[in-house]
Amino acid sequence: MGANETGTLAALKTLRTDFIDGKIAEHQGRIVKLTGDGMLVEFPSVVNAVACAAEMQRGIRDRNADVPQDRRLEFRVGVNLGDDRRRRRYFR
Fold first, then answer.
1. DSSP reduced 3-state for 86
2. Using a CB cutoff of 8 Å and minimum separation of 24, what contacts does 70-76 make?
3. Were 32 and a residue from 28, 40, 60, 82 both cysteine, which residue would form a disulfide, CB within 3.0 to 4.6 Å?
4. Is the pLDDT of residue 85 over 60?
5. Domains identified in the chain, total number
6. Confidence class of residue 7 from pLDDT cuts 50, 70 and 90?
């Protein structure tokens, strides 16, 4: 990002359009929030979330195979399982 912010953002946009957004939809996910190079995505189950994350990590690894190390897009993924029944009670 530091060496070529414009190119990195263009590559990220292309990756989202060509791959990430489709994987999220395939696993019934919904993008809740975008924060620059991050995103918060909601899934109907933790199984869907983990399956999507694993497929995205494998797909991105495969796409990076022929890309020089300093030009690769690499992602960290975190999955949070929360009891949203308690949250609903507070937001009704």
1. helix
2. 70/3, 73/8, 73/11, 73/12, 73/15
3. 40
4. no
5. 1
6. confident
CATH of the domain at 28: 3.30.70.1230
Q: Helix, strand, or coil here: 37? A: coil
pTM: 0.81
Q: Which helix (H) or strand (E) holds 40?
A: strand 38-42
**Does residue 90 have a pLDDT over 70?**
no
Bridge partners, residue 31, by sequence: 41
% of residues, the chain, pLDDT over 90: 57
Q: How far apart are CA 15 and CA 69, in angstroms?
A: 17
Residue 32's contacts (CB-CB under 8 Å, 6 or more residues apart) are 40, 41, 42
